[in-house]
Amino acid sequence: MKKRFVSVWIIGIIVLALLLVGRVGYTVYISNSSDKASEKIGIDYKFDDSLSSVEYARLGNKTWSYFECAVLAGFLEKEDVSNSLFKAGYESGLTYIEASQKGLITDEDISKKVPVGLSWEISGPNSDFILGKVFNVAKDNVLEDVFQGGGEWNSRELQISTAETKYNRSNCELF
Fold first, then answer.
1. Domain-located, residue 24
2. Residue 10 lies in a domain
3. Closest of 107, 103, 135, 109 to residue 121, by C-alpha
């Protein structure tokens, strides 16, 4: 019993340390380098400084949703939709990151409104790098049960059916 208690205690300390390092990382490692990728993908980005903390936090949630829907649309071979959703996610992500950098979002709003996958990936040398990491985690998250179910690979038909169901349940058409 004592050995189990010690193991749980150590895991708790590790998780706490990771959370603290993540919070420090997002403060220390984000640079203010320009985001040239926005120009390459056709986004004329300008920071909107008129939003509240809750509205900025909601942009984090939208970023995640846009990216997940972009992945599903791409999987379902809806390339134009996928590209539009990616651009929308990228633009809202730029605003979310800049608001985070400027300290315009409270910790409470982040914890209530922002998906964990986004809040854990908010460190990096620039916004493009951060959004690349976020997109990759969102992709892995949304496709997790598309390819496999019950420890076995799904047939192509089941993959498409699962992706269509997720796309519809996520209301991706509304974006």
1. no
2. no
3. 135
Does the pTM of the predicted model rise above 0.70? yes
| pLDDT per residue as tens digits for the range 7-20 | 444 444 444 344 33
The pLDDT assigned to 40 comes to: 61
96 and 111 in contact (C-beta within 8 Å)?
no
Nearest to 51 by CA among 40, 62, 42: 62
| Distance, CA of 71 to CA of 79 (rounded, Å) | 10
pLDDT per position as a tens digit, 91-138:
999 999 999 999 999 999 999 999 998 888 888 999 999 999 999 999
Q: Does 22 fall in a domain?
A: no
Give the strand pairing for 152-153 and 148-149. antiparallel
Number of domains in the chain: 1
- Of 140, 129, 133, give the one whose Cα is nearest residue 71: 140
